[in-house]
Design goal:
By secondary structure, the protein is an alpha/beta fold. It has ten helices and twelve strands. The protein is globular. One of its GO terms (molecular function) is oxidoreductase activity, acting on paired donors, with incorporation or reduction of molecular oxygen.
């Protein structure tokens, strides 16, 4: 199993005096952490995509390109690319260029995103949420698999005998499908034979087992090699020397962030009792000491029938 780290490039980091650091410093420190992760053997780093004040990841491929210049081995992925509001031609070109810069380490995790601010920002209608993603994923795969593209759709001009460059080192360029909890999304990924990245940020991990089974069954029914139907998990996590230290350092920022997001979505405020249930044996959060975290990752893998990759999102709490 590969172990990775995902980040949304938080703009909420504070200095020793409790003052927010500048955005430029936050990005420099993020690149330093990525450089360190590469040196200690972390397999993958993922940068999200948001268009909000709290995060600095609106141009993830730029951050990943800067990281490519400072690293040698770590895989460089999106986490996720909000494909529904993006031009698949530009997405492919950006990540093909990243693949060339990094000598074959780029990957795309294509999803719809869990925030909605990008839809009005780029002039799209939320009523087209599902149709946009399906069409743009189809185009992205067409571009990946064909140097010269012929394609027609609803949401962008047709492509007729149009060549798309540059081409990446990796052939094919890895494209994962990022999913939440919609059964149709799991089935789509299986039918297409694409690896699956499941975002599990709350509840109990084992509740996703039937959905992962849907994915694997759909893939095998479509004729894909079961060995290629890889499953990864993106989860919130934090490791400290002791469980008590992990809770003390992680909970305040986690509660602040998710209470703020909850106000936008009608969720109740985060409480310590809720948090403790989430870091329990079957809860989604992977927070604790080294032994506890390792054991929980293996438990999650077993619950979902085996994982190829587990990616921790470590900066949700705005840790210093």
């Amino acid at each position: 199993m590969e172990i990775g780290i995902d980040t949304f490039a938080s703009a909420n980091f504070k200095d020793e005096n409790g003052k927010l650091i500048s955005n430029s410093q936050a990005l420099e420190e993020l690149l330093e952490r990525i450089e360190y992760a590469d040196k200690i053997g972390i397999d993958q780093i993922g940068i999200g995509e948001h268009h909000r004040k709290e995060f600095l990841d609106s141009a993830a491929h730029i951050i990943l390109s800067a990281a490519a210049a400072r690293t040698k081995n770590i895989r460089l992925t999106s986490a996720v690319t909000v494909l529904s509001v993006s031009d698949p031609v530009r997405v492919f070109q950006n990540f093909a260029t990243l693949d060339l810069i990094s000598n074959g380490r780029a990957e795309i995790v294509a999803g719809r995103g869990s925030f909605t601010e990008s839809y009005p920002l780029f002039g799209y209608n939320m009523h087209d949420y599902n149709a946009l993603y399906a069409e743009k994923l189809d185009l992205l795969l067409n571009i990946r698999d064909n140097e010269v593209v012929n394609w027609a759709g609803k949401f962008r001009p047709d492509l007729v005998e149009q060549a798309v460059y540059p081409r990446p080192i990796q052939d094919p360029l890895p494209i994962w499908v990022g999913v939440g909890g919609t059964p149709e999304s799991f089935v789509r990924a299986g039918v297409l034979g694409l690896p699956l990245m499941v975002a599990i940020i709350g509840g109990e991990t084992h509740r996703f087992a039937p959905l992962v089974e849907l994915y694997r069954n759909a893939g095998e029914k479509a004729g894909h090699d079961p060995e290629k139907l890889k499953v990864g998990v993106h989860s919130l996590g934090y490791v400290a020397e002791t469980r008590e230290q992990a809770i003390k350092e992680f909970f305040p920022g986690y509660a602040e962030m998710f209470t703020k997001i909850g106000r936008e979505r009608g969720w109740p405020p985060v409480t310590m009792s809720h948090f403790e249930s989430q870091i329990g044996p079957t809860g989604a959060l992977v927070v604790g000491n080294v032994e506890e975290v390792a054991e929980k990752v293996l438990r999650h893998s077993e619950a979902l029938g085996g994982l190829s990759r587990f990616s921790f999102q470590l900066d949700v709490a705005g840790l210093s």
